[in-house]
Design brief:
single chain; alpha+beta; Aminopeptidase; 4 domains; ten-stranded mixed β-sheet; seven-stranded mixed β-sheet; 26 helices; 36 strands
Length: 867
């Protein structure tokens, strides 16, 4: 009897009746492919799907059909898989290796004859990448990806078969597994037996701090595409550069009361976007519009979302030649939410909308496969020809002892941007980054050279050009809108040139230099363990390797000293700020300890025979001070910015490898601080910090500082420090005096949309140990400007914005901003009793981009408690 029942169940499962597709009208489906409901227990759009259930469904589909191949391309910091689902016809699955070869041939057409390229176009299916839910709480994308995968895997209709014959669809079903899981678990905890209450005030529509939008380290993954701080991004970009997709869609959510957005984008659009991409934005936009019109659904284009910053999930693929597009669906929040017009947006509706544009995009690509691939080929070919005529023909970056140029080039190589080395010194007329005039100079042998006349030239130019150009008509409109007190259209930062953020010397030339050798990887610097020392060991400050070595020594309780004045030992000259490990106070085990940690960090360490210097200051000088291993607390929780908290947390975990203890901001004003020497307060508004701490908390925190604690504030938190309530600083926030010509006479908004400015450093400050540049680029991404007291002690202002004629390096500033910002402080430090405050006007760890400021931040946290 049991056997008979089992056979009956198998027959039911295998029957066409069991197969279904809630978002398709009519059609038949392969009964061997499991429906989402048969594995998940619900239809796509009825509930949010956990990562474990998503994995189960993807694996079940991949086992059931030869149309689908499932790969894992990365693991998140929390250990979840980042999947790639490759869906195409059975015949195409059999020749995936050939398809990738053909895709590479089209992506790099150099050396191929027209006949060979025509043959490649004829034989190559168009490749479409669909990325869902890069923001964890924009979760309808995952459900749409599940539904669309089922359609492609099981659909027997002629349209589905045509799409599979003509395309290879690469589905990234959840781009941010860690954030998405936070969202799903929160909603599932808050969901009642009767479903989702639609009230916008319902707890299920919210989330725990800092929300589920971001990654494990609370980064916005849709800003990480060229920074590549996360394994998800590295795995995703590496995979895309193996496939070279011709269309790439990043499916998001927006405010619940909106409708649906798809390309073309609004202004500003990056000048490196080619005409072929503009053409296909229109084509795909019209196709999506027709699909929505068939259902009577609302949508909009050309507003709300730009394509200027190259780190988005649509812009980065666009600069490789794909038709990169963002699709934005009104959010269902916790699964159902009442909108401003009284209607309720459900997860099922949101899922259906994303399913529809996924279908429309792949169908359009399939029907116009040859045209799309030929336009992609034109993009890649014209990148070479236009690069040859570009005044910004080559970028030359000399290598530096600190390794920052190598780190920058490693980033470029990971983007498949071709990089060369200069075989011998070359005379050229070159323009230094940050300067307007060219000059004859000698470029040193071994310099990195990036020739923009290459297939990836547009991406290379977008990342390396000194200043991304904004359209003059756009600027004129923004100035007029601002005068009328209307909002601006700046969606993100406007300055990101990599030579500035890495703080490297760089030059651009209009005529190629050479001879050149192709660089396939970064040469590994040979690290020789130091000889056995008699007196101690020393290493120079400033490099990422030396920061890692210092952090590991302090973490392991090795006693370290800081020598603020330069000295020479034997044949080695040490700059101001070298670190010294003395043998006697550490004991005999220190020899092996230093050797091992030096090799692990990749740092050059020199054995010292004596405290007597062969030049400069002796190492027994009273100026040489002991570095106390700091016990560091990091304020988090509401109202701290999750992003800013995450940037700092990431820096300690991934760069310093040094322990930091996250605490609630409320605990920062409590006796628990007696266990810590340093408190870092990431970005938060002054009012919210005051409210969270209360008067008692402020008093307790002030007392902790005055008794020897070090308080470090970042970005907006510095505006709190610069008020009277903490009573710790004489600096004050400058009032906004920009009134001029606004229509209503009110102050004009003056927040800078992410520009790069010069600062001048105090070369005598211990916080600039290892930082040799006289002018240091920093990010300006707010309207906060500070005033210093009239009478300042030496060494208080560590970094000050440059004079107005030297201030702006890249990005947009409102007309009155340079005059107001010039000469104001960016970084300062003040004594407070036995303690110290250190205040950054911006965030030195922003998005893991600002690698040039890493040693400054490291000096603040590791040396502040010892000064």
């Amino acid at each position: 009897m049991y056997r008979a029942v089992g056979l009956l169940l198998l027959a039911m499962i295998a029957s066409p009746v069991a197969a279904q597709q809630p978002f398709a009208e009519g059609g038949t489906w392969d009964p061997r492919v499991p429906t989402p409901a048969s594995v998940l227990g619900y239809e796509p759009g009825e509930r949010f799907t956990t990562h474990a259930m998503l994995s189960r469904y993807l694996e079940a589909v991949a086992r059931s059909t030869s149309r689908v191949r499932l790969d894992t391309v990365a693991q998140t910091f929390e250990g979840r898989e980042l999947y790639l689902v490759i869906v195409t016809s059975e015949a195409n699955q059999q020749r995936l290796d050939e398809i990738r070869v053909l895709a590479r041939r089209i992506a790099d057409p150099r050396g191929a004859t027209p006949a060979e390229l025509d043959d490649a176009v004829r034989r190559l299916p168009a490749i479409v990448w669909l990325g869902y839910s890069v923001h964890g709480n924009e979760a309808s994308g995952v459900e749409a990806g599940i539904a669309f995968l089922y359609q492609l895997a099981a659909g027997q209709d002629s349209d589905t078969r045509m799409m599979l014959d003509s395309t290879v669809v690469l589905i990234d079903p959840v781009q941010n597994p860690d954030g998405h899981e936070r969202h799903v678990q929160y909603v599932n905890r808050m969901r009642g037996a009767l479903g989702v209450p639609p009230s916008p005030a319902a707890l299920i529509q919210g989330g725990d701090w800092p929300g589920a939008r971001t990654s494990h380290y609370y980064f916005d993954m849709n800003r990480d595409w060229f920074v590549q701080s996360h394994p998800e991004t590295r795995g995703r970009t590496r995979t895309m550069l193996e496939w070279w997709p011709h269309a790439a869609v990043d499916l998001h959510e927006m405010g619940s009361s909106a409708s649906y957005y798809f390309a073309p984008p609004m202004d500003p659009v990056n000048k490196n976007v080619h005409a072929t991409v503009w053409k296909w934005w229109e084509i795909y936009g019209l196709a999506n519009a027709a699909a929505f019109d068939a259902h009577g659904w609302s949508f909009f284009r050309r507003e709300g979302y730009d394509d200027f910053y190259p780190g988005y999930g649509d812009s980065w693929p666009t600069f490789t030649g794909a038709a990169g597009m963002t699709y934005e669906q009104a959010s269902s929040s916790g699964g159902a939410i009442r909108r401003s017009d009284g209607t309720v947006m459900t997860l099922a509706e949101a899922t259906h909308h994303h399913y529809t544009t996924s279908w429309s995009t792949v169908m359009t690509t399939a029907r116009r496969r040859t045209e799309r691939i030929r336009d992609y080929l034109e993009f890649r070919q014209s990148a070479i020809s236009e690069g040859q005529a570009d005044p910004l023909r080559q970028v030359v970056i000399p290598r530096d002892a600190d390794g920052r140029a190598d780190s920058l080039v490693a980033r470029l190589l990971s983007d498949s941007i071709e990089v060369y080395t200069l075989r011998q010194a070359a005379r050229a007329r070159a323009t230094a980054y940050g300067e307007s005039a060219s000059a004859a100079m000698t470029l040193p042998a071994g310099s990195w050279v990036i020739d923009l006349a290459q297939p990836q030239g547009r991406l290379a130019r977008a990342l390396l050009e000194p200043d991304a150009q904004l359209d003059s008509a756009f600027i004129a409109e923004e100035l007029e809108n601002r005068r009328q007190a209307q909002g601006d259209r700046f969606y993100d930062m406007t300055g990101w040139s990599l030579p500035y953020v890495f703080r490297v010397r760089a030059y651009h030339v209009s005529s190629p230099v050479g001879p050149l050798d192709r660089a396939r990887s970064i040469p590994q610097r040979t690290v020789t363990p130091p000889d056995r020392a008699n007196y101690g060991y020393a290493f120079a400050p400033g490099s990422e390797t030396s920061i890692r070595l210092l952090a590991s020594l302090l973490r392991d309780s090795v006693r370290v000293w800081f020598a603020p004045k330069s000295f020479r030992s034997g044949d080695t000259d040490f700059p101001d700020g070298a670190f010294v490990v003395r043998v006697a106070p550490n004991g005999e085990s220190v020899h092996e300890h230093v050797r091992r940690l030096a090799v692990q960090a990749g740092a050059r360490v020199i054995a010292l025979r004596s405290a007597a210097a062969d030049g400069g200051t002796d190492l027994g000088s009273n100026s040489v001070f002991y570095v106390r291993p700091p016990r560091i607390a990091l304020a988090g929780g509401s109202p701290i910015s999750g992003n800013s908290f995450g940037y700092t947390w990431f820096t300690f975990d991934q760069h310093f490898r040094y322990p930091v203890t996250p605490l609630s901001l409320n605990d920062a004003g409590s006796p628990v601080m007696d266990d810590f020497d340093v408190l870092i307060v990431p970005s938060a508004s002054a009012g919210s910090i005051n409210g969270e701490l209360g008067e008692n908390g402020r008093d307790r925190l002030k007392q902790w500082v005055q008794e020897g604690g070090v308080l470090i504030t970042l970005d907006a938190a510095t505006s709190w420090l610069a008020t009277e309530q903490p009573g710790l600083s004489d600096f004050r926030l400058r009032r906004d005096t920009a009134r001029a010509d606004s229509a209503g006479g009110a102050p004009l908004p003056s927040s800078v949309p992410g520009a790069i400015a010069r600062t001048r450093g105090d070369s005598l400050s211990w916080m600039l140990a290892g930082v040799q540049a006289g002018e240091i680029p920093v990010l300006v991404f707010s309207n906060r400007i500070y005033d210093a007291p009239d009478r300042l002690r030496a060494g208080v202002v560590v970094l000050r914005y440059a004079a107005v004629d030297r201030l702006r390096l890249a990005g947009f500033m409102w007309p009155e901003v340079p005059d107001r910002l010039a000469e104001s402080p960016y970084l300062w430090t003040e004594s407070a009793g036995r303690g110290r405050i250190i205040a950054f006007a911006g965030d030195p760890n922003f998005r893991d981009m600002w690698r040039g400021l890493l040693p400054v931040f490291a000096n603040a946290v590791f040396l502040g408690a010892s000064r």
